[in-house]
Amino acid sequence: MKIRHILPALTAVAALALVGCTNTDGVERTTADAAVLDGIEPDPAAVELLPEEVRESGVLRVGINPNYPPNEYKNAEGEPVGWGVDLGDAVAAKLGLEAQWEDMSFDSIIPRIQEGALDMSSSSFTDTVERQKSVDFINYLNAGSQWAAAVGQDVDPEHACGLTVAVKATTVQEQDELPARSAKCVADGEEPIDILVLDQQPEVTQAVVDGRAVAFSADSPISGDAALQLPDKIELVGEMFDAAPYGLVTPKDSEMTRAVQAAVQSLMDDGTYLEILTSAGVEAGALTTATINAGEN
């Protein structure tokens, strides 16, 4: 699926309904005003760093797995939206390009970048040392993991042995955090954590709402959004942990990496970046410098 669009402003309403092929949770959230994105002027220094073939194409091919609200998800028309999409559109504008969003599974994005089928991804990738072996990350947000549970459940992430905990497939929580917690339970002579792995974050949240799981673990912006949208059903439990940077993904050691870094820094310097984050309520994780491969775990 390839989509070119300018995002409209959305208003927030609270609801949860998994809606067919759109992969949305049915909640419309506030994102950056269209006028902000429309007003972005290309940064000549960033444009100059682009690979010639990308600059001449006029298009930035961006991979996305849009089922991770509020960062990236789909609206009722099936278009990718969210503050992560706003940021991707803004980076494209700074580079004098138009973002062409390509919807795919999360675990296929890095291989597609490696083979040259994508120029960038804006899809809530945590910058890890292991992933840095394959691609580069232009860091744009500090986030961590955060548990959320059904309201009234007595859940402690540090003592979750024997409980059913939901998680989205291929995330750091599914691949690293929960297996490590479960292994510790077994080593301590307790029951392992029953890890309920689901493909989409709205399904993960719904599993807690309908009682199939007592809690879920996700990136802190995602857990915080669930608690905000469903205050009578979902609440945050425990503290945020394992803080690490999100990064826009680009080909390893490439001209594209330097161009995207320059574009993000330009957005930080002119205030557009902070406006995008503030519109979504995630400004607490804002950075002032667009680093490359700052993840240390």
Put the structure in a nutshell.
By secondary structure, the chain is α/β, with parallel strands linked by helices. Helix content is 34%, strand content 23%.
Topology, pairings included?
Blueprint: E1 2-3, H1 34-38, H2 44-49, H3 52-57, E2 59-64, E3 73-74, E4 80-81, H4 83-94, E5 98-103, H5 106-114, E6 120-121, H6 129-132, E7 135-150, E8 164-168, H7 172-187, E9 194-198, H8 201-209, E10 215-219, H9 220-229, E11 234-251, H10 255-270, H11 272-280
Parallel strand pairs: 2-5, 2-6, 8-9, 8-10
Antiparallel strand pairs: 1-5, 3-4, 7-10, 7-11
Helix pairs in contact: 4-10, 4-11
Q: How many helices does DSSP assign?
A: 11
The total tally of domains equals: 2
Oligomer: single chain
Summed over residues and divided by their number, the pLDDT gives a mean of 88
Helix content: 25-40%
The CATH class of the largest domain, by name, is: Alpha Beta
Major sheet details: 5 strands, mixed
Estimated radius of gyration: 19 Å
CATH architecture of the largest domain, please?
3-Layer(aba) Sandwich
Task: Please state how the strands of the largest beta sheet are arranged side by side.
Answer: 9-8-10-7-11
Strand tally: 11
CATH superfamily of the largest domain: Periplasmic binding protein-like II
Shape: globular
Helix and strand composition category: alpha/beta
Order of helices and strands: EHHHEEEHEHEHEEHEHEHEHH
CATH topology of the largest domain: D-Maltodextrin-Binding Protein, domain 2
Distance between the termini: 33 Å
- Fraction in beta strands: 15-25%
Note poorly predicted spans.
Answer: 1-24
Keywords: Signal
Domain Solute-binding protein family 3/N-terminal: 59-280
Signal peptide: 1-17
InterPro entries: Solute-binding_3/MltF_N
